[in-house]
Amino acid sequence: MGQMGFHDFSRRYExxxxxxxxxxxxxxxxxxxxxxxxxxxALLAGETPQEWADKPAxxxxxxxxxxxxxxxxxxxxxxxxxVCTDRKHKFIRRYTVSDAACHDSQKFEEVLDSTNSxxxxxxxxxxxxxAHEEMLKARGLRSRVHRRxxxxxxxxxxxxxxxxxxxxxRARVEHILGHQVTAIKNCLLxxxxxxxxxx
Length: 199
Hints:
2 domains
C-alpha cells in the first residue's frame, strides 16, 4: 500500500476505523447538520453565534468575515481581490479586498485611480452597467468596458469584435492574477511536500 495523498480523506477515515479511533464514531453520533443552518445564518448576518461567546478558541479558528461564492460550478470560501493595474508596466496601482460573495461591480469606483495618466478604463463585462458608464463619463474617463449580451439581444458582430480588441488589453491584468495563483499553488505544493516528508 503506497503513501496516502494529502487529500485522500476516504482512506484516512478507513485507517481511523481500523484503529477504533473515536472520531468516526463521534461523527456518526453528533447531528452536525442540525446546527449548520443556524450557524450559517448567524455568520452571514455578521454575528458571533451565541455558543461561541465564551469560547475564544472557536472564534479564532473560524473566519467570520469570509463568505462562500461559486464560480464555474466550484464553491470557494474566502476573499476576493479587486485591482486596478497599469496597462503598460503591469503594476497594481490600487486594490481593495472584499469577501468572496461581493460582486465585482460593487467595488468598481473604489479601485479607480484618479492619478492615472490614461483616461481609458478597461474592465470585463461584470462592470457593464448604465450607472458605471455615467460615473466614468462624469469623472472624465473613457469606458473600455466589455459589452454584454442580454436575453433575446445577443451581441452584434461589431460588439464581439470590440470585445476581442478589449481582451488583448485586459489579458495583461490576467497575467498578474495568473502569477498570483501560480505562486500560491507553488507555496501549497512545497508545504504539502514538507508535510508529506515529515509524516
